[in-house]
Amino acid sequence: MPAFSQFQYQVKSTIGGATLQQMGLVTVSAGKTAFITGMFVVFVPIFEYFIPGFGHQLTPSSWAMALVSMVGLYLLTGCAEEEVLYL
């Protein structure tokens, strides 16, 4: 298996991620897709915390901000509206 340069890896990851997201739009609403995409802002620092070599520290305020951003994204993307039962 040939070794990929960092640039090739980034291009293939971007194309692959975009393709999977567009395929997901067929079965999932745009609001839920936007929520998942926006959650990468929260997930990346958390992943860096657990992956050896990065050494990032997550303070209690970082966890609080992650929780607030998750709730905000949930409300902004309209996912809450889809779950409401209209009687």
Alpha plus pi helix count: 5
In total, how many beta strands?
A: 0
SSE class: mainly alpha
Order of secondary-structure elements: HHHHH
Main sheet makeup: none
Poorly predicted regions = none
Distance between the termini: 58 Å
Anisotropy-based shape: flat
**β-strand amount:** under 5%
* Computed Rg: 17 Å
Explain this structure to me?
- By secondary structure, the chain is an all-alpha fold.
- The chain is 70% helix and 0% strand.
Supply database-style keywords.
single chain; mainly alpha; 5 helices; 0% strand; flat
Task: Offer a quick outline of the entry.
With 87 residues, this protein is mostly helical. Helices cover 70% and strands 0% of the residues.
SSE topology sketch:
Elements: H1 6-24, H2 30-38, H3 40-50, H4 60-76, H5 79-83
Helix pairs in contact: 2-4
